[in-house]
Amino acid sequence: MNAPASAIEQLQLGLPELDWITDPNRIQRLSQDFSWFSPVLTRQLEGKVADAVVRPRTEEQIRQVVAACARLKLPLTLRGSGTGNYGQTTPLAGGVVLDMTSFNELLWLRPGLARAQAGIRLNEIEKAAQAEGQELRCMPSTYRSATLGGLFGGGFGGVGSINYGPLAAPGNVVGLKAMTIEPEPQIIELRGAEAMRMHHLWGTNGLVLELEIGLAPAQPWLETLAVFDDFDAALAFADQLARAPGLDKREVAFLASPVPDYLTQLAESLPKGCHAVLSLVAEAGEEALAELVSAHGGRVSYRRTAAEVSKSHKTLMEYTWNHTTLHALRVDKSLTYLQTTFTPGEYVRQITELSRRYAGEVFMHAEFLRNMEGQTNCSALQIVRFTTEERLQQIIDEHRAYGVRINNPHTFIVEDGKAGGDLPEDVLAMKARFDPLGLLNPGKLRGWPVGAAS
Amino acid sequence: MNAPASAIEQLQLGLPELDWITDPNRIQRLSQDFSWFSPVLTRQLEGKVADAVVRPRTEEQIRQVVAACARLKLPLTLRGSGTGNYGQTTPLAGGVVLDMTSFNELLWLRPGLARAQAGIRLNEIEKAAQAEGQELRCMPSTYRSATLGGLFGGGFGGVGSINYGPLAAPGNVVGLKAMTIEPEPQIIELRGAEAMRMHHLWGTNGLVLELEIGLAPAQPWLETLAVFDDFDAALAFADQLARAPGLDKREVAFLASPVPDYLTQLAESLPKGCHAVLSLVAEAGEEALAELVSAHGGRVSYRRTAAEVSKSHKTLMEYTWNHTTLHALRVDKSLTYLQTTFTPGEYVRQITELSRRYAGEVFMHAEFLRNMEGQTNCSALQIVRFTTEERLQQIIDEHRAYGVRINNPHTFIVEDGKAGGDLPEDVLAMKARFDPLGLLNPGKLRGWPVGAAS
């Protein structure tokens, strides 16, 4: 007589037609994301692995998996392409990883809007939008592999946020379709503010099937690096460029020395020890851009037109946001990073003072963006020379005491990261409505511990 | 024996092939603009009229007029369509009005840029740009008749400045070609910051022949009016809409009661006594817009899609900026107006306090825009119930004492208006270079009085 089948075995036996990943190495890999940027998360998430990974192709297959997991009380963790950095896709209590990448249809494109299944890669939307004179409003530097659902569940914004602000700003995500985690799953359309209660919750309070997002009119972007000998001049240039209302742009990043030295693939354009500003400015603005660079004593060391970028498939966008960190980590494994939000109107002083205070240990990389209120602001992804977890925590505490916001990327608990504390009532109500059994990656929400469900 | 010909007669006899306007009524009309919005200017400019008006068609014809005027020491006043409000086109010392409206060729359109002769109507550029998926970045409400050169010489910005800021922001005007006023006129191309030293000088420091301007990607704009019972709610809505980074928009205007009552052609959509917000938001943003209106207790009372606007040739843009004043003056000739620039971050309080302080006398109409530093701000064109010039001056003085900037529209002197004082050295150097004989509308620059030239 055979031993009684485990819940996982029952699940797989009951749904034999699905695309199950069974190879332990692949299961291991699909249980991880880019949380290895953090030595803290690397330690904390060691050994956390799914019991099974499934890759559904249709809404009906998703429904079957969800219904069965709900009946069997099996934890369910949602995964896009695993480009997140906070262990978003790592199951803390085992169970099933639902890999959404085969659920990837672009449903429609209209002027200013697109709707797609959650597992679509952002680059697929970008390419289809470009063909119609449109482009994504904000996207992570990982857009080639990152999914739309992953961006919504664990992302903030990125390239384009200098215009459109964070993904959370009204109009960027218009609506979504989500599934409840129950034996009889319900499928529900949420619009506007209600839809956003599922945003940046790491897939813990609902399974998003489809997303409807705003698009931007496409522009031909000139990609440039401007280099400076002087920190203050480079920062002042970046700030003025970011704020200039007459210069259309998609991206402005300030890379203080020694950050440019880590971008070895761009070494020809980044003299050792320089401070650099990476930007995407509309080609029509090149003359005004050049005038601004000169006025700040810099020079343009790299210049690619939109046509050249398109032909070469090499884009500076893949040197921005957390890609900068990735390039640095490839050069020096002992590095890690911080995430900091500065204050509108004060960020130049804050960046300058903090860069001086931590010279040799914390290296400034600031991204310009508009915040939810439409103000120009900076968000930094500083590169940190890691020594000990205690020292890292001390740096974080000191930054907070100084008066800037740290979105701690060294925790896997939702409330301890960017959420910055207890979740609002309306978000918890969404959790109760869409995951009444508490099966979505139990342990991820501190306020909703394993076994807390009804 | 005939009497010796006057300088004007010599000019006209010497250039018989040009298009001279000789009818005294037409000369009278072409010596005026919309300065009748101001009872002060109406009084001050009474009787100021050109001796002749000429309408050149080519650069060569312009050169001939300029060379002859320089030889004959005849004053020269530049004119577009006369939609300005500060007596820009009124010759203070007689002489020749150079009507530029027949010098109106669109030279080229490229992605993000256009170049045209100064006398082109803005609507001609807009139509040509729209055909290629582009549009003007900022334009006055008078765009149907106003010229490009007139906007550059006497305009500030307008519809679209909520994105691109004032026309003066780098990138909006890329370059220009200008002619010196000399017996042997020189033609000189100016680029970037140097070109802007000829901006908003009412055509007193150079004759602009061609302008090269930035364009925006076109979007389908939904035109709406949202109406509110409550002043604070309407203003808060307008402010949040203006700042929302995820809502693409071309125009946001706040019309406090009783201003909407003066817009009689929109009366069906503007209940008596309402406060209204007029906006052009990208059609893709309609759902988010509606959510925002509801959240502030308002309702959308007028809604036209881009297709409907295009078909009807009726656009809300012609109810914004100084068109609002025009509509009010049509209803009540005793009204006049103010121009006020508020302070970023404080404008909601300033608008509220000033509206209460002058209830019944000064009626708030505020336009949202980005300033040169990229901050969201408000500029008001308040409608004023006029009593005396002394009271009007008192209101202006009180506003200045309160801490907001008044761009006095009741003066015809450049330095006393928006320039706000003595002109910078580089602007005066431009005057000396391009108008060494001081012939461009003498009397308009306080710092360059009639007869001050070499």
From TrEMBL, chains A, B:
Q: Could you confirm whether the keyword Mitochondrion appears in this record?
A: no
Q: Which keywords belong to this entry?
A: FAD, Flavoprotein
Entry superkingdom: Bacteria
Q: Which residues form the FAD-binding PCMH-type domain?
A: 46-218
Q: Pfam families per the record? A: FAD_binding_4
Keyword Lyase appears in the UniProt entry: no
What GO molecular functions are on record for this protein? D-lactate dehydrogenase (cytochrome) activity; D-lactate dehydrogenase (NAD+) activity; FAD binding
Quote the protein name from its UniProt record.
FAD-binding oxidoreductase
Q: Name one GO biological process term.
A: lactate catabolic process
What's the source species for this entry?
Xenophilus arseniciresistens
